[in-house]
Amino acid sequence: MEVDGAAQVGGLAVAAVYPMDTDGDGTPEARDYVLATNAAGWLMIYDATNRQFVSQVGQVAPPGPASAIAVDRAARKVYVAGGTSGIYVVAFDESISQSLLDTDSDGIDDRVRSPARTWPRCCWLRSWA
């Protein structure tokens, strides 16, 4: 499988029947999304509502590596594992774009809210027994 020119996929998640206002009329339409991270570190978003014509509709570049991902439908967020950088929280309730959304000009896509938590490099999974 190749995702945006990178043959290695780090994470894959499906958000089926996900409500998103794709036409800007204020009414969410149910869409089927496939989300993947690639070796270049991008979070890629594909619309798979029409299985005959799956198309890339968005991409987000977290400020570091990207691998495993999970979609939280209730919070309308995507969580992206960033290795030692922590977990990036990405808004999945705004307009989907293939361009960088950076209104505050900090060089980080505005859909990336922040690392949820940066764990120390020590063995936080260590058994204390």
Task: Tell me the series of helices and strands, N- to C-terminal.
Answer: EEEEEEEE
The proportion of strand residues reads: 35-45%
Arithmetic mean of pLDDT: 77
Number of domains: 1
Helix content estimate: under 10%
Number of helix segments?
0
Q: How far apart are the first and last residues' alpha carbons, in Å?
A: 43 Å
Question: Uncertain runs with pLDDT below 50, 5 residues or more?
Answer: 117-129
The neighbouring-strand order within the major sheet is: 1-2-3-4
Main sheet characteristics: 4 strands, antiparallel
| Radius of gyration of CA atoms, rounded to a whole number | 16 Å
Overall geometry comes to globular
Structural class of the helices, strands and pairings? Answer: mainly beta
- Please give the number of β-strands: 8
Strand-helix topology:
Elements: E1 9-20, E2 29-38, E3 43-47, E4 55-60, E5 69-72, E6 77-81, E7 87-91, E8 112-115
